[in-house]
Amino acid sequence: MTELALPRGPQRIVCLTEETTEWLYLLGEEARIVGISGYTVRPRRAREEKPKVSAFTSAKIGKILELRPDCVFGFSDLQADIAAELIRRGVQVTVFNQRSIAGIFSMLYQVAAMVGQEARGLVLLELIRARLQEIEAAARRLPRRPKVFFEEWDEPHISAIRWVSELVAIAGGDDCFPELAPQPLGKDRIIADGAEIVRRDPDIVIGSWCGKKFRPELVTARPGWDQIKAVREGQLFEIKSADILQPGPAALTDGVEQLHRIVLRWSESHG
Fold it and tell me: At 162, is the secondary structure helix, strand, or coil?
């Protein structure tokens, strides 16, 4: 009988979104990556080292096939058509659908296990978890919690997705629209009437316009928004979407750290 090599997980991986690319680099397994999303900015070197083969809802199927991947990592129902086409072409596809902090941790663990880095993955995940607990403990000591309106898109207004809402809470704030956060699709988190945001009167407004630069001057010019405390007091901030709207390591590290710093600065002047 011919000797068979034991499998060591996929050796040629295409990542259709940024979070799995960043995680594989953190695991020291970037050599397995043969293609990435064109939106990838974390880590920066990935853009220089890896072919870009997809946007978010579209992909260069022919180019992906030329790379001969033995696994493609995707995210959510929004990439279902890409996944279906690759599956029809005989490619193994793993599509994750993490929408919460717990879901992100689960996805990261699964990817680490798939590439034989379960132990290293657990060490990194424990470091992230411990820091989240430190931030949460510090937030509990704040004298007041600000109301936070996190705007994922401006026209129409789209409020925070679940993992962002959860991170706002860990950082010390209260999401102005917690009832919308569980909705996985942006269209279901649309706030049709901007007057409702004015009515809820956030202390802090954070813009992360999904790849588009946040422009505070457009926010302050909205009808009626001069009544909002955040606008009157200049509490308008941007967190880049690559740092908070990618459901992976970035959101659980840089994203929450930025949220926490914003809340702490607010607390220093409003506590």
Answer: helix
The CA distance from 64 to 76, in Å, is 19
Check pLDDT > 90 for residue 8: no
Which amino acid, one-letter code, is at 10?
Answer: P
User: Pairing state of beta strands 236-238 and 157-159?
Assistant: unpaired
Q: Please compute, for residue 226, the number of CA atoms within 13 A of its CA located in the half-sphere on the CB side.
A: 2
Using alpha carbons, select from 176, 133, 37 the residue that is nearest to residue 164: 176
| Interatomic CA distance for residues 182 and 193, integer angstroms | 19
Q: Are 40 and 21 in contact (CB under 8 A)?
A: yes
Mean pLDDT of 24-34: 98
Rg (CA), the chain: 20
Here the tokens at position 266 are: 């607010």
Alpha carbon 183 to chain centroid, angstroms: 15
Q: How far is the C-alpha of 131 from the C-alpha of 139, rounded, in Å?
A: 12
User: Do 208 and 240 form a contact (C-beta atoms < 8 A)?
Assistant: yes
Quick one: average pLDDT of 56-75?
97
Rounded distance between C-alpha atoms, residue 206 and residue 215, angstroms? 11
Could you tell me the two tokens for 40? Answer: 């990838």
pLDDT at 257: 98
Q: Where are the beta strands (DSSP E) in the chain?
A: 13-15, 33-37, 52-54, 71-75, 93-96, 147-153, 157-159, 174-175, 190-191, 204-207, 236-238
Chain centre to alpha carbon of residue 92: 24
Tokens, residue 250: 């970035």
> What is d(CA 112, CA 129) in angstroms, rounded to the nearest whole number?
16
Counting Cβ atoms within 10 Å, is residue 210 exposed (0-12), middle (13-18) or buried (19+)? middle
The label of the residue with tokens 């992100």 reads 104
